[in-house]
What does this fold into?
Amino acid sequence: MKPLSARTAGFTDSVIRRMTRICNQYGAVNLSQGFPDFDPPHVLLDRLAQVSREGPHQYAVTWGAENFRRALAAKQSKYMGLPIDPDSQVLVTCGSTEAMMCAMMTVVDPGDKVAVFSPFYENYGADAILSGAQPIYVPLKPPAYQFDPEELEDAFRQGAKALILCNPSNPCGKVFTRGELETIACLVRKYDAYVITDEVYEHIVYAPHVHTYFASLPGMFQRTISCSSLSKTYSITGWRLGYIIASPEIIDVAKKVHDFLTVGAAAPLQEAAIPGLEMGEDYYRQLRQIYTEKRDFFLKGLDDLGIAHNVPQGAYYVLLDISEYGYASDLEFCEAMAAKVGVGAVPGSSFFREDVNHLVRLHFAKKESTLQGALERLANLNKLKK
Ligand SMILES: Cc1ncc(COP(=O)(O)O)c(C=O)c1O
It folds into this structure.
């Protein structure tokens, strides 16, 4: 038989989902794949129950149900500080995952180059392969995960047509400062490039850090494809609701890609999510508060156990430093940790372009009881020392 597509030959199985399978095998507390184990807001669940009886149950408008787009545009206009037109500047997708893929297919042709900060969320590598783009990695340097503007400029000099900007960042929890974003904006203007943002953690930011939407910088809306989703903000990762916000010219093209990729996001779930989009500032303040408590609780637990880690400014991940355990492979460490300690993590190497083997990522989007259980197990981490 003829070989299957060469495009997929370089794909590996997702390390994150593989770690989930390993966790299930050993009954480990799964802190690898980032999703909450607590309920979404009740207004969404109540509306979902109603919608199950009343509909809609058939296709929504392919670029998003009109009432969902209106509610989303109103909410994003407020937080992004930009007047967003629900008809011409919004495209509803199946999660930020589809939004990012759709944005890449909209902006790049096979052979084009895209700049990607490293560490990066693992989907960006696959997005680049599927759209035929060639990634140029720009390091974010620990411990503050800052980039060197010279290195970023070099990526643009080499012809990067777009930059992928995950802010707040998974896995390192970096929240880009306004100054850093302005530096990026200068380069984007100078080299006539685009920025594709992934802002799924826009509302999960720890004081004193604040989230700045790249599209809100002067002159940047026209050059930015803002991707995000409802997954993390409303604890509904399984509903698969995401979106792109961009200029009408960009949205027109993205709509075509999206239409042929998925036709559209689930109509009943768009309808049921509207009350979430209509919630006031209190909800987002409370969300920040809840995640701040989770972060502080988990990080204090790690400190009490003497486990070295970074301090995230946003998102819900923490990187543990495993240098002292004597493993050459972080994957081997994660497998041993799931099997012998009973906690699932993701090897840091799956996020870094550089040769990094001394970090593993845990997430803390869990109930306090789950985090407490994980910390009790992590008390045995010393057993893994070689
Ligand atoms: C940075 C980042 N982008 C996108 C996603 C996936 O988002 P969605 O559920 O909206 O597809 C995740 C999930 O962990 C993520 O961490």
Q: What stands out?
A: The mean pLDDT is 96. The chain has two domains: 15-40+282-384, 56-279. The CA atoms of residues 23 and 178 lie 39 Å apart.
